[in-house]
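Sequence design from tokenized structure. All designs in this work follow the same two-part layout: the structure record, then the generated sequence. An example of the structure record is given first.
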């Protein structure tokens, strides 16, 4: 049997029963579209969260008070046996491979300036904050080493705070009150937007030592260390751990590298993406039942045609391949239609709701199409084998 004849016979069933074939293929298409739509949203969320997590910078190691492995949970926010201090942060500055060290804490306080008041987030940070977290100062500057040591009342504003409290004015050199205390404005940050749900523009930044005094805290919430890009995170983590153990006498702190955090986060999001894809894949079973039904009906309706083919010399294998080809072609076309629908709906949602992260993972698209073809093959095996085993003489007598 020539390939041209094989193709003609394979497509003849579609052309003779267009509506039935379309509805059967539509079952596969809906399943594929559901898989693509769900995985597009899942993968988009995946990339969005990872990008947000990386907005603070790269090559970071965070040190938090409290030993999570022995105490069961991180007690950095509510206290530990020994707090992290500014002296700890200063000791880490002199370690090999370390580029920036930023002691940090945060709280909430009321701001007052020019007869206006606003309650917002106050970050207590070190002098390396902008370098460690890739945050840039738009005008003015951050404090210096001397400023941090003396805990002077200096503040750098987020862009939104500047607009609300100093609209139309140059805030540099002016004063505002934070929690009832007077601070001098020395800088304004560039707009950063929201990162992991925190609006970095609706915030102010003061020296870490001043923040500890403002919030009446005995220690820091964390120390962030940025290191050279050509050095392994495990090496730097080991050096930090050894130095702090020397200072504290024991390991009463927790180190978390950004690399570790991203790996854990990525694995969790991958599982979520796979899970939503699997849920969408359940609908493909409906399409498989449809293909099984239409192929079984096709064998019954074309019994005489099968008998004629066998009488003209077609072998069982050729008849088997003919019906399997029909099933695969039907499911493949349905899969392509599903890909078009799924990608189109996903992109349409993104256009209607720009904040909705959508990204079509082409690996999942290829796997979805491969799954559609596999389903067509599996669903068509039984009817194809039945057609191939028909007795030619009896098949010719069928009407």
């Amino acid at each position: 049997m020539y390939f041209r004849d094989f193709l003609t016979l394979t497509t003849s069933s579609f052309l003779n029963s267009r509506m039935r074939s379309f509805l059967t293929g539509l079952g596969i298409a809906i399943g594929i579209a559901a898989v693509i739509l769900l995985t597009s949203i899942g993968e988009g969320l995946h990339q969005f969260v990872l990008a947000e997590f990386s907005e603070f910078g790269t090559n970071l190691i965070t040190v938090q008070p409290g030993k999570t492995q022995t105490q069961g949970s991180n007690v950095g926010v509510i206290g530990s046996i020994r707090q992290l201090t500014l002296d700890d942060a200063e000791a880490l500055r002199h370690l090999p491979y370390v580029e920036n060290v930023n002691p940090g804490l945060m709280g909430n306080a009321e701001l007052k300036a020019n007869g206006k008041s606003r309650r917002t987030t106050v970050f207590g940070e070190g002098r390396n904050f902008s370098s460690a977290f890739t945050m840039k100062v738009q005008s003015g500057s951050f404090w210096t080493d001397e400023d941090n040591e003396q805990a002077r009342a200096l503040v750098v504003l987020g862009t939104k705070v500047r607009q609300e409290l100093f609209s139309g004015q140059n805030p540099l050199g002016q004063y505002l009150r934070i929690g009832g205390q007077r601070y001098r404005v020395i800088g304004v940050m560039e707009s950063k937007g929201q990162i992991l749900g925190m609006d970095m523009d609706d915030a102010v930044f003061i020296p870490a030592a001043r923040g500890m005094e403002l919030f009446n805290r005995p220690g820091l919430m964390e120390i962030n260390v940025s290191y050279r890009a050509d050095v392994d995170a495990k090496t730097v983590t080991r050096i930090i751990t050894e130095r702090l153990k020397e200072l504290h006498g024991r390991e009463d702190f927790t180190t978390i590298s950004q690399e570790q955090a991203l790996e854990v986060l990525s694995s969790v999001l991958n599982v979520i993406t796979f899970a939503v894809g699997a849920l969408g894949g359940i609908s493909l079973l409906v399409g498989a039942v449809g293909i099984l039904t239409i192929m079984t009906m096709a064998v019954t309706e074309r019994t005489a045609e099968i008998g004629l083919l066998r009488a003209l010399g077609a072998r069982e294998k050729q008849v088997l391949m003919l019906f399997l080809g029909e099933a695969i072609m039907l499911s493949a076309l349905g899969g392509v239609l599903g890909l078009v629908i799924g990608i189109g709906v996903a992109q349409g949602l993104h256009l209607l709701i720009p904040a909705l992260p959508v990204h079509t993972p082409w690996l999942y698209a290829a796997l979805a199409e491969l799954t559609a073809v596999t389903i067509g093959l599996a669903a068509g095996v039984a009817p194809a084998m039945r057609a191939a085993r028909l007795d030619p003489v009896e098949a010719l007598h069928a009407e």
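The radius of gyration is 33 Å. We note this feature because it recurs in several other targets discussed in the main text.
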